[in-house]
Amino acid sequence: MKKYILHNLEIIHNRINLACEKAGRNPNEVRLLLATKTVSPDRIKIALENGQTLIGENKIQELKEKYEALKGTLHENHFIGHLQTNKIKDILKYEVTCIQSLDRLDLAEKLHQRLSADNKTLEVLIQVNTSNEESKFGINPGAAIELIKNVSQFPTLKIKGLMTIGLFSAEAEKVRQCFKILKNLQQEIIRENIPNVEMKELSMGMSGDLETAIEEGSTIVRVGTAVFGARMHPDSYYWNEGTIENKE
Ligand SMILES: *Cc1c(COP(=O)(O)O)cnc(C)c1O
């Protein structure tokens, strides 16, 4: 298992380096986030003990289950899944340093209330739906600037950039369009010069499309399968379940 994961990590770093070279970018500008949904703490630890620093979970339940086992191993944890407002307390308890999936105002409002009470701040990325697929979360590109202006009013939330899940397609050019939308939106937001808003980070690109994402300006690629192997559940299990919101 260890050999398998380390070998895969080496391949991923080579892919990132090569893509950066092609795009004329410095590989230090692109951070690797390991998407660890369904991955056991033992396997995650192998990666963390061998140079990796950043992981991302999709579900509070998994965050909770792995928390104790990973606590002693230095790392940073981002949340990359759909977040229900009734789970906010947990996300703060399990020391997530960034929520990459902030996509609506009521969630921002409740996060702010909680953070204010705890005297804390939290980094966030705004998740944008660039593929126009109903199954995915994220704010529509056309509504993103208004959302960001509203979220920027909450001093506890530090907006650092944007996140998207590209279209699932074998056609690289269609996927590229999604990443271009995110990049263009970033540029537009920078021009707006909104106080309390930084737009440095673009979290885009996964196992299958990280090269395209890097060419289009990604600063965080989120990789699961290509490091840990195939998952048992289809991704729709992670990306659709929240459409039925728990009653709050
Ligand atoms: C699972 C997941 C990834 C990684 O996907 P892979 O295809 O396994 O690399 C990236 N981003 C999000 C939001 C995910 O849920």
From TrEMBL:
Its cofactor is pyridoxal 5'-phosphate. It holds the Pfam family Ala_racemase_N. GO terms for molecular function: pyridoxal phosphate binding. InterPro entries: Ala_racemase_N, PLP-binding_barrel, PyrdxlP_homeostasis. Residues 45-231 form the Alanine racemase N-terminal domain. The modification N6-(pyridoxal phosphate)lysine is found at residue 37. Keywords: Pyridoxal phosphate. Belongs to the pyridoxal phosphate-binding protein YggS/PROSC family. Pyridoxal 5'-phosphate (PLP)-binding protein, which is involved in PLP homeostasis. PANTHER family: PROLINE SYNTHETASE CO-TRANSCRIBED BACTERIAL HOMOLOG PROTEIN, PYRIDOXAL PHOSPHATE HOMEOSTASIS PROTEIN. HAMAP family: PLP_homeostasis (MF_02087). This is Pyridoxal phosphate homeostasis protein.
